[in-house]
């Protein structure tokens, strides 16, 4: 009985830990500080070994376009685009929402390396998985 209880407790602990390993960050704001806040938190989650997925919609999709002129944010004096590139290098999955490219006249080739167009069915399935935490900016 004790052995069975111990095994169950260990398995439940592992399942709970596994459920808390994903963060979904949705950024739609065109404001650089809001974008930066979302990207900073995503970076902190990556440093804590959490899988991070970032969805950029509306004006925030511009962060993912090559050659965008953006303000530098203090205290590190980096742009939201530089933060995004750091997240990609660190292993975050980054996508623009499915509506972004067709409604801005941009093409997939306009996006930074490592950024793709999201597929709504995949995003919905991801959000419905147990243990995915979400942040929106």
Short key terms for the protein model shown above:
alpha/beta; 5 strands; five-stranded parallel beta sheet; globular; 137 residues; 18% strand
| Share in helix | 40-55%
Question: How much β-strand is present in the residues?
Answer: 15-25%
Tell me how many strands there are.
5
User: Runs with pLDDT <50, length 5+?
Assistant: 1-19
The helix/strand class is alpha/beta
Supply Rg: 18 Å
Question: What is the subunit arrangement here?
Answer: single chain
Cross-sheet strand order for the largest sheet: 4-3-2-1-5
Major beta-sheet overview: 5 strands, parallel
Distance between the termini: 49 Å
Described by the principal axes of the CA atoms, the overall outline is: globular
The SSE order reads: HEHEHEHEHE
* Total number of helices: 5
Average residue-wise pLDDT: 89
Structure report:
With 137 residues, the chain is an alpha/beta fold. It is built from five helices and five strands; from the N terminus they run H-E-H-E-H-E-H-E-H-E. The protein has helices spanning 2-19, 32-47, 80-90, 100-104, 120-128; strands at residues 22-27, 51-56, 93-96, 115-117, 132-136. It has a five-stranded parallel beta sheet, sandwiched between helices. Strand 2 (51-56), helix 3 (80-90) and strand 3 (93-96) form a beta-alpha-beta unit. Helix 2 (32-47) packs parallel to helix 3. The longest helix has 18 residues, at 2-19. It is globular, with a radius of gyration of 18 Å. The N and C termini lie far apart (49 Å). Mean pLDDT is 89; it is low at 1-19.
């Amino acid at each position: 009985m004790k052995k069975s209880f111990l095994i169950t407790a260990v398995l439940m602990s592992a399942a709970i830990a596994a459920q808390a390993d994903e963060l979904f960050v949705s950024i739609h704001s065109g404001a650089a500080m809001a974008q930066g806040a979302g990207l900073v938190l995503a970076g902190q989650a990556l440093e804590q070994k959490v899988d991070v997925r970032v969805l950029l919609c509306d004006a925030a999709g511009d962060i993912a376009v090559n050659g965008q002129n953006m303000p530098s944010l203090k205290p590190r004096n980096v742009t939201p685009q530089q933060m995004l590139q750091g997240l990609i290098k660190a292993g975050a999955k980054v996508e623009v929402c499915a509506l972004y490219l067709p409604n801005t006249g941009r093409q997939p080739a306009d996006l930074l390396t490592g950024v793709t167009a999201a597929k709504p069915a995949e995003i919905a399935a991801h959000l419905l998985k147990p243990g995915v935490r979400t942040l929106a900016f």
